[in-house]
Amino acid sequence: MRRIGRFFLYLFASVGTLVTLLFISAIVIAVTFDRPKSELPERIVLHLDLDKGISDSRSDDPWRRLRGDEAVHLFDIVETLEVASSDERVVGLAIRLGAARIGLAHAQEIRDSITAFRSRGKFVATFAQTFGGLRNGTAEYYLAASADEIWMQPSGQLGLLGIALETPYLRRALDKVGVRPEFEQRHEYKSGIELFTQETMSEPTRQSLTQLVGSWMGQIVSGIAEDRGLLPRKLRQLVDRSPLLASEARNAQLIDHLGYWDDFIEAVEAQAGKKSIGLKLAYYAAQSDGSGEDATDVAMIYGTGPIQSGEAENSLWGSEVFAAESVVNAIDAATADESIAAILMRIDSPGGSYIGSDTVRHAVIRAKKKGKPVIASMGQYGASGGYFVAAGADKIVAQPGTITGSIGVFGGKLATADLWDKLGISWSRVSVGANAGMWSQIYPFLPSAADRHRVIIDFVYDDFTSKVTADRTLPEGRIDAVARGRIWSGADAQQVGLVDALGGYAVAAGLVRNALRLSSDAPLNFVVLPAPRSVLDHLRDVFSEGVSFTQALATLISVPEPDTFDDLLRSLEQLTGDISVLRRPAGLLQLPPMRLAQ
């Protein structure tokens, strides 16, 4: 009995300690992110550290913010540099590039902000220990090239290698182990299922990806060549010679100075003047005045990650999915709020659930009918289901390097009966209904089930394309030329009528002002919906739901249930790059698997 009593004593003591730590952490976070404003110095050099990467969504994980390992939010960079560009106290910007990979569309967004910042007479300098090292550093250098000066460590390399896309094909492996792929695609360019059905890249896929890579590389070469005062032909030659040693890069006029971080900071301080003070971009943003009391309120609604039906999980650890119901709730709230004049949807999604995508698109259409202008701004991706959502908006904005289009559908399953047989395992079934077991991962489709599956796939494709045709007012017959699952860069998508304007947040904000008939410099106040949640918010929700103490504690400390398959793929993605190669499809409307080669 004493041992049992001691066990419960230790258990409740541990639980009490954990709850106490949660409340203390909540208070620390609240204090950390709600400090009173301080007076800023008279001469400022802003510091932007991109070592943790760039994020297109605001994390709901307060622990990451407290630890300082959260990627910099893209909108914060853009908004802060816009404010700083008109602040006479700010004289320059120092950027440190680190090990994190930067996507092309994100690089273009920051390049646009840097260009606008420099146009106001302020200097920008960038530093990197190396551009790529033992991996491709093309996008990072592309970003750096927009600055006045580029510094690199003497021991570094310039990995201006170009771009390569790689896709895996599992068909031979599946045949060997006895797994039978049974999929349908609409149409030849919707290559997501080729991962399972093909032994090598199909010609339509090769054509689509070749055009995408060519568009990307053309943008990069023209941008760098203009920034560095080089002929595009000369730059192409340097790309083919890369990676370059530091001295070679400097002799080729691609790097201005070789030195270490302390040398860089010393040079920046000398350029800024002795009385200048270096401030982190985030600190400056927190201390600066906002958009003003006369600013027009615009809802900022994020749709990032794979699209899934349902609401986002109420978890301390945040969510990295495009939860359709949560986004719909935010759109409806903005539509009903008379103080909100318009909606800016930021979409960074490769697609996913057809039902979820259609549900969000319907909410967008409903908002427009009730008089709320809706502008869609795309990040790295706005493809398949992501494009389906955006198509309902009044205008679509994308970066030239955004991956978009992919208007098509695929679906099916892997039948594993032969695999189980090889393992000496047999399955038996009883059922009522001719197609009751059609989605079983054991048996192949019966003929009647295969027929129904084709009907479903055809319906989804026809619904997708007809709604895009209506939303975009495409001429009759045009949709077949731009759809069929084909992937487009943002630049090419504009040429074929799938995108209205090229750019990022600034261009989207301009379209918002046009829709509201405001002047080009009218201040806008972006209201994020749903509002980012703090630890205190989570604690308040959990303990106000009338659940028991034990249930509340379980909710607070629980980590989302692991998925062995997804966990394995997440580990593999550390090896395969930052575009999902093997991730389980989230739905019928999704990009094909591919990765940027290292």
Short description:
With 598 residues, the chain is of the alpha/beta class.
What does this 3D model show about the protein?
- Helices cover 44% and strands 18% of the residues.
- It starts with a helix and ends with a strand.
- The chain has 23 helices and 26 strands.
- It has 598 residues and is of the alpha/beta class.
- Among the domains are: 44-161 and 242-287, Alpha-Beta Complex (2-enoyl-CoA Hydratase, Chain A, domain 1), CATH 3.90.226.10; 296-412 and 437-560 and 586-591, 2-enoyl-CoA Hydratase, Chain A, domain 1 (Alpha-Beta Complex).
- Strands 13, 16, 18, 19, 20, 22, 23 and 24 form an 8-stranded mixed sheet that branches.
List keywords for this structure.
598 residues, single chain, 2-enoyl-CoA Hydratase, Chain A, domain 1, 8-stranded mixed beta sheet
Rg for CA atoms: 26 Å
Average pLDDT level: 85
Q: Any idea of the CATH class of the domain at 296-412 and 437-560 and 586-591?
A: Alpha Beta
Range of strand content: 15-25%
> Which residues form runs of ≥5 with pLDDT under 50?
17-21, 25-33, 553-584
CATH level 3 topology of the domain at 296-412 and 437-560 and 586-591: 2-enoyl-CoA Hydratase, Chain A, domain 1
Q: What is the percent of helical residues?
A: 40-55%
Shape: globular
User: What is the count of DSSP helices, taking H or I runs of 4+ residues?
Assistant: 23
